[in-house]
Amino acid sequence: MKQLLKSILFLLLVTSCTEPYALQSEDFEEALVVEATLTNEFKKQEISISKTYPLENIQTSIEKNAIVFVKDDLGTTYNFIETDNKYISENEFQALPNRTYQLFIKTANGNSYVSNNQTLTKNNTIDDVTTTVRTINGQKGVEIGVNHKDPDNASKFYRYTYEETSKVTAPKWVDSELKLQITAPYYDIIYALIYFELRTEEARVCYKTTKSKEIILKETTKQSQDIVEKFPLKFINYKNYDIAERYSILVNLYTQNLESYTYYKNLKKSAENGNILSPSQPGFIRGNITCVNDNNKKVLGYFEVSSVSSKRIFFNYFDVFVDENNLPDYFNPCNIVELEPYDYEGFREDGDEKEAITLRTKIKNKSLIYYDKYFKSNGTITFMLVEPPCGDCRVIGSNVRPSFWID
Amino acid sequence: MKSKIFLFLLVFATQFLFSQETNQPFTLEFSNQSTKSVFDKIESISNYRFYYDEKWLSTNLISGSYEGKTITFILEKIVENTELNFLIDQEKIIITKNKMIYTSLPDNFFTKSGNETKPSTKPIFNDIEAIKSGNLTLIGKESLNNTEDTYTLKGNIKSAKNGLPLSDVTVTNKSNKKTTVTDAEGNYSLVADYGENAIEFDGQGFQKQTRKIIIYNNGKLDITLSEKVNLLNEIVVRGKRRNNLRTAITGVTTIEAEGIKTVPLVLGERDVLKIALTIPGIKTAGEGSAGFNVRGGKEDQNLILLDNATLYNPSHFFGFFSAINPYATNRVDIYKGGIPVHFGGRLSSVFDIISKNGNTEKLKGEAGIGPVTSNVTISTPIVKNKSSLLVGARGTYSGWILKSLKDDQLKNSQASFYDAIAKYRHEFNKKNSLESTFYYSNDKFSITSDSLFNYSNLLLSVKYNLAFNDKHKAEANFTNSDYKFGIDYDNQNNVTNSFDFGFRIRETQGVLKFNYAFNPKNRITYGVSGKLYKINPGTVNPKYSISLITPLDIADEKGLETAAFVSNNYKISEKLLIDYGVRFSVFTALGASVQKTYLENKPISEATVTGEKVFGNNEKIKRFSGFEPRISAKYSITDNLSLKAGYDKTYQYIHLLSTNTTQSPTDTWKLSDLNVDPQSGEQFSFGIFKNFANSDLEASVEGYYKKSKNILDYKVGANIVLNKHLETELLQGEGKSYGIEFLLKKTEGRLNGWLGYTYSRAFIKLNSQFDEEIVNNGEYFPTNFDKPHDFSAVLNYKFTKRYSFSSNFTYQTGRPITYPVGKYVFGGAEYTLYSDRNKFRIPDYYRLDIGVNIEGNHKIKKLAHSFWNISIYNLLGRNNPYSVYFVTENGRIKGYKTSIFGIPVPTITYNFKF
């Protein structure tokens, strides 16, 4: 009986089963996605226009050949031209206070979209970008914060983006690299030639730049004064190599209005997982752009006109972590792999082989790169190889020194 | 003595022709003496001898003073206003009850061709043997002055078992086809034609009784009904029999706990509330979901009462079982429409659960053993024939079963529950009685090994019944409900984030209700009620001192709901009955509280807070009031066919907070306040009810249209737990639902059961002047529980008295869900585009359950009466989806489907009664 009871209860608990549920792609709904923030900077303004893509796809789809322009209340039209998957304004311009702006889009399939009227928000200046050493959840690190204030106590809603740049030096960089050349078949024999070549491009010092992806928002409605102090934007663990050599962060402060703030807040929430206490009801988050010829057509994204203030800071590791004695370890342990060049296994015509472990495969795939060599007593050469990030910083960042960079 | 006097009657019936009166004057004086002692006195001062049955004489004391009056005059005075007649035959005085002894036969007595003469002049001859055997009862005093064609028969009906009055017993005069039902105190009143009538008494669960009566005048007939010895299997769910034709209100169903035991249910748990789901108009969002959706109403719009105390969470074990112990339950009255005025505070329905009364005569008990729970119910008299105590308890063994399992995760998980009920009833006298119920239920479960959820209901109800007189009665009721919900999150790998979460709601209620039978045509109900709510919306405390959790206590909410109500049940004519009334409710949100104020003409959001208003303890925050008219009318086209229509208005001041698509035990409640308006609803309903003559077949078609306002919903991504700005996450929209419900029911016979089909829709509209408060373009969209087609069949076939087979089939349209229809990149990150809310549906739901019921043998002198039930739940093994959800895995969105019982589940249960 006990066994029976057990098995029945077991059924109760385990018959509640979960199985994959086929996503029906015929339900796919195409909608326009607009990401447009006009700022008070005098520059070529940018607007991204894309489309939703099916759940099973990976590639985002850009909305091509759309007519895009912004019109102000004086009738001035600013045209945007499609360039590199973005729409960039024909001329440089800046959003001005007390003007209202409206975004117009006509897509290639004939749909017309229009935003509501937006006015430039009040300009606020970042006073400081701060660095504070803190321990959060037992993890030591540096917290990048921001200070700003609105003496008029009027702005209240803020959005931040940032762009981090780290200087990275490849620890096992050498001035030459191994190259591979496969000969044409000569009486059914193919030769693979491995040879040295001096590096012609910068590969030792690079600059790794990443943009913020998450939505960072702050409001001061609950405060008596419109002051933001050391509002945390980013926390970097003290063992993260990003800050080891020299680190720079550019913080952009967008002053938002209530509506644009609420849109971003809801979008941010929808992407976060609900906690154990309150799972969320999913749904459509409405922006301020509507389809003129089909009012029920969903449009994603937002057109905002925001004052922006930017500030960049630089710091070196020991400027921040004054108590630390050692720099963080490099991204990669840079273990050395030794390989001999000789092998006579069956080549195919494309120069590939069955077992992809040999030197020439590594060189061909660029999965290991040259670091050093030595000769054994029998005269055979052994190559010492490392993973690419250790010898070629271009794997991590750009070898072009950014114009803003100050050492 | 009895047989002796009948003998006299026989003799005198033929001999009285020769009797004569005496005119000898008498002097007699007596005060406050019984009739018997007056007769004795007459015997002592004269030669008269009285012949009578002492039982006939009333115990009322009489007084009189006579000087120089004839014996006839004196006796006429004594028997005035009694049912007694007398005949003086020389020195013998024959007292008769009801019957009058005729001194002459009617003129046409010996002429067989004679047509019936007017009843007033025609003596009624009847079968003495019938009177002797109790099959014929004489009502009223026969008198030569009784010239009416019809008289009123009144009486009281009691249970033979415990002497309690029986309400809702159908009393039918078969002779003139008039019918009535007993009121709450067991009283009835019925019109009978002069002369012989056959009166049938039919109460649910009691043996039908037919009494032949001879009515001479207005009179009384009290009846005791015995319980049906073998009602098993015969009745599954009994609506109030023929009640559908009698009362004015539509949308009422009664479920008898005893009647449902043959219906196969999951894991053999007899469950009155789950049976409710097979009744048209009552649905649930999913198999394991707690809560009901009645006629398109949300889960929080049902007032679930156990002996008048509100039960906030009527479910056990994620909603698989209801928290009502079926063995201690008498019945559940479900009002889907036409909610009586003395109920209020919820929009959609009332589930009025009435527990069993204990036995006042002897110890009785019942016990059941099932795979998940066992239970025992014992009832005992405390003071014989006056007071009784019923105690019921139920527990699950799932706890130790889980622990004995090998799987580590299951081993560490928990699921256990128990509930207990005690009911004490004391009848001081016929006019005063007291009832008191105590109830406690407790649930513990864990989904993951680090979090333990628990909740409990504690209910207390005290009721005092007082009858001022036959017409005017009062009922005073005090109840207290205490519902707690908590989460104990204890993760040894994450001690700094371990916490205790708690929610609590307390409700204290007092109701004073009066019933006044103004006259036979008007029955008035009136009264007042007051309800005090106290809610602790949530507290979080860290479990360990090194915690990162900041202790948080959301300020308590307090509110007082008061109401006054009056209604009249007015019988305009034999064919037209109306029940009209009004409830006026007032809700006051009380401090201490800090309420936020928001910018006008801006959406309520954390961003638009303008300030705070501070309210002191018991200070009025905001007052709402609602005028709730409730009207229903019934028109009987024929005895077996009637039409009904009704209109109801209801207000609700408390709201369930749930962002889940189905009700879950983790949901909490919130009171109306400065920023949250009360919900209100209106329902128009109509119905056609037909009973087929000479059979137990009943058919009904009911339709409704409902509109509601300020239905609570949530913004996308709402966070409702521990939120200090809860109102910023809420939306209040309009609801609209309509439906038509068909029910065909056969209550008796070898094949019994019912078929129900409902076509219904339930929509909600969330529109606003602000974009972020608009859902689905501000148009009506289907609610989470909108399941247009709903068919259920509960059938029971009795092979023999001991064996029966039952089956239960359900088909429902799949419920609506919000489905991802694409993804997009914004600001460098990937987001999901969801369809319009509830645009898609999960696949349809259907399920067949079967069961075989075996009664123990039917020897009367048996120690215990046993009952076996073998059932298979979900015989077809249909993998009904419960929910479909989507997660992002490795950057790609994947869908999953969860089902609860995807395979047939067999069960055996055993129970016995003694």
Automatic annotation (TrEMBL), chain A:
<protein>
    <submittedName>
        <fullName>DUF4249 domain-containing protein</fullName>
    </submittedName>
</protein>
<keyword id="KW-0732">Signal</keyword>
<feature type="signal peptide">
    <location>
        <begin position="1"/>
        <end position="22"/>
    </location>
</feature>
<dbReference type="InterPro" id="IPR025345">
    <property type="entry name" value="DUF4249"/>
</dbReference>
<dbReference type="Pfam" id="PF14054">
    <property type="entry name" value="DUF4249"/>
</dbReference>
TrEMBL record, chain B:
<comment type="similarity">
    <text>Belongs to the TonB-dependent receptor family.</text>
</comment>
<dbReference type="InterPro" id="IPR037066">
    <property type="entry name" value="Plug_dom_sf"/>
</dbReference>
<dbReference type="GO" id="GO:0015344">
    <property type="term" value="F:siderophore uptake transmembrane transporter activity"/>
</dbReference>
<dbReference type="GO" id="GO:0044718">
    <property type="term" value="P:siderophore transmembrane transport"/>
</dbReference>
<dbReference type="Pfam" id="PF13715">
    <property type="entry name" value="CarbopepD_reg_2"/>
</dbReference>
<keyword id="KW-0675">Receptor</keyword>
<dbReference type="InterPro" id="IPR039426">
    <property type="entry name" value="TonB-dep_rcpt-like"/>
</dbReference>
<dbReference type="InterPro" id="IPR000531">
    <property type="entry name" value="Beta-barrel_TonB"/>
</dbReference>
<keyword id="KW-0998">Cell outer membrane</keyword>
<feature type="signal peptide">
    <location>
        <begin position="1"/>
        <end position="19"/>
    </location>
</feature>
<dbReference type="Pfam" id="PF00593">
    <property type="entry name" value="TonB_dep_Rec_b-barrel"/>
</dbReference>
<dbReference type="GO" id="GO:0009279">
    <property type="term" value="C:cell outer membrane"/>
</dbReference>
<keyword id="KW-0798">TonB box</keyword>
<dbReference type="Pfam" id="PF07715">
    <property type="entry name" value="Plug"/>
</dbReference>
<dbReference type="InterPro" id="IPR036942">
    <property type="entry name" value="Beta-barrel_TonB_sf"/>
</dbReference>
<dbReference type="InterPro" id="IPR008969">
    <property type="entry name" value="CarboxyPept-like_regulatory"/>
</dbReference>
<feature type="domain" description="TonB-dependent receptor plug">
    <location>
        <begin position="252"/>
        <end position="345"/>
    </location>
</feature>
<keyword id="KW-0472">Membrane</keyword>
<keyword id="KW-0813">Transport</keyword>
<keyword id="KW-0812">Transmembrane</keyword>
<keyword id="KW-1134">Transmembrane beta strand</keyword>
<dbReference type="InterPro" id="IPR012910">
    <property type="entry name" value="Plug_dom"/>
</dbReference>
